[in-house]
């Protein structure tokens, strides 16, 4: 028991000694507008000067391409990515007595209604594919019961998974190492119910999501009530999200009728990663007045932005597992307690 208590104190100290984080932010955003002579028709319709029309176009393009609120959006993306490793590198429900391995899929999403442009229509939901993170991983672990240390379990996980869909391509990369200490042993109050005890899990987990677009993208908006704006842009967009978490989790589980296990608990993550966005686009601008298209000119859109989640993240953990002999099918939810962010994981493990 002394081993368990000592390990718990060390694990908590390693995480909780980090109490303050500085947000790292770097910004380089530019939108340049070049008007054609025909753009004077739009200026007349809107009753503005050419200089004012340039300003209207610049602000609308920055809004349509997600640049006005990019700092907040990237902060939320960093928080979503920080949720990705949760539940992927440890077994919270099987109480293994030896070797186990498995595969899992995890996705995390944050909600930011303010960052959406209500009157924009696009061939993608959002020009910048942010506020989302994901991972596919393989894991393996070992409980040291045969070495007379059933209270100690160590596990590793990791995988590289390339993706390609429509105009996007990218990759998921993750790896981590976790140690789990059973501070209170299991008990079985009846033949129908078994309590798995109380576990403390700590470790380091890395997860990276990269998505890029190397194709044209069309986004439509408006200039006032009488002019619709159509933009067709070509170039490159790349979003890279990285989570490097020091994690501490306190979990427990209960098995009913031997085949169904319910588990839950709380987690604390110290995020060390962040999000970066680079964009270099050239756009053709077309104004539409009373159904007539007007060549308004062109625009160049560039940005290099970085943001980092600057606070420790606390989350709730809830999951269930179906036990089919040695095969364990699980589903789990991680719910952030700071932001409207949720992560969901599913997969299977084989336990020996």
In short:
The protein is mostly beta strands. It is 15% helix and 58% strand. The model is unreliable at 1-25 and 113-125 (pLDDT under 50).
Q: What brief labels describe this structure?
A:
352 residues, mainly beta, ten-stranded antiparallel beta barrel, 4 helices, disordered N terminus
Give an overview of the whole structure:
- This protein has 352 residues and is mainly β.
- The chain has one domain.
- The protein is 15% helix and 58% strand.
- The protein is built from 4 helices and 15 strands.
- Strands 2-4-5-6-7-9-10-13-14-15 form a 10-stranded antiparallel β-barrel.
- The radius of gyration is 25 Å and the shape is elongated.
- The two termini are 25 Å apart.
List the helices and strands and how they pair.
Blueprint: H1 2-16, E1 29-35, H2 39-46, H3 50-64, H4 70-83, E2 99-110, E3 121-122, E4 132-144, E5 149-165, E6 168-184, E7 193-213, E8 217-223, E9 227-256, E10 260-271, E11 274-289, E12 292-307, E13 313-324, E14 327-336, E15 341-351
Antiparallel strand pairs: 1-12, 2-4, 2-15, 3-8, 4-5, 5-6, 6-7, 7-9, 8-9, 9-10, 9-11, 10-13, 11-12, 13-14, 14-15
Proportion of residues in extended strands: over 45%
The rounded Rg comes to 25 Å
The chain-level structural class is: mainly beta
Integer count of domains:
1
Query: Could you spell the SSE succession in H and E letters?
Result: HEHHHEEEEEEEEEEEEEE
Q: Which regions have little confidence, pLDDT < 50, spanning 5+ residues?
A: 1-25, 113-125
Overall mean confidence score, pLDDT: 84
Give the helix level as a range of percent: 10-25%
Q: CA-to-CA gap between the ends?
A: 25 Å
């Amino acid at each position: 028991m002394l081993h368990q208590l000592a390990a718990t104190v060390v694990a908590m100290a390693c995480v909780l000694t980090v109490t303050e984080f500085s947000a790292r932010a770097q910004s380089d955003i530019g939108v340049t507008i070049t008007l054609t002579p025909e753009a004077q028709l739009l200026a007349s319709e809107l009753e503005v000067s050419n200089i004012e029309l340039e300003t209207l176009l610049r602000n609308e393009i920055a809004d349509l391409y997600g640049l006005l609120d990019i700092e907040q959006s990237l902060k939320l993306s960093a928080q979503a990515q920080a949720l990705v490793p949760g539940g992927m590198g440890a077994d919270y429900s099987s109480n293994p007595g030896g070797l186990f391995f498995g595969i899992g899929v995890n996705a995390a999403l944050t909600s930011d209604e303010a960052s959406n442009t209500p009157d924009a229509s696009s061939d993608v939901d959002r020009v910048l594919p942010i506020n989302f993170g994901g991972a596919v991983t393989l894991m393996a672990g070992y409980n040291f019961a045969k070495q007379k240390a059933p209270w100690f379990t160590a596990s590793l996980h990791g995988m590289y998974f390339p993706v390609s869909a429509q105009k996007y391509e990218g990759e998921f990369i993750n790896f981590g190492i976790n140690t789990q200490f059973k501070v209170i042993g299991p008990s079985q109050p009846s033949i129908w119910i078994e309590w798995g005890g109380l576990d403390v899990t700590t470790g380091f987990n890395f997860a990276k999501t990269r998505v890029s677009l190397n194709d044209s993208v069309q986004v439509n908006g408006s200039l006032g009530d009488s002019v619709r704006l159509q933009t067709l842009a070509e170039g490159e967009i790349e979003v890279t999200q990285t989570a490097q978490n020091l994690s501490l989790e306190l979990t427990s589980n209960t098995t009913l009728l031997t085949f169904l296990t319910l588990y839950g608990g709380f987690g604390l993550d110290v995020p060390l990663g962040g999000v970066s966005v680079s964009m270099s686009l050239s756009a053709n601008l077309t104004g539409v007045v009373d159904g007539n298209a007007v060549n308004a000119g062109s625009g160049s859109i560039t940005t290099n932005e970085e943001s980092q989640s600057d606070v420790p993240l606390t989350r709730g953990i809830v999951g269930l597992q179906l036990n089919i002999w040695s095969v364990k099918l699980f589903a789990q939810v991680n719910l952030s307690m700071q932001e409207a962010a949720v992560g969901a994981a599913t997969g299977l493990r084989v336990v020996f």
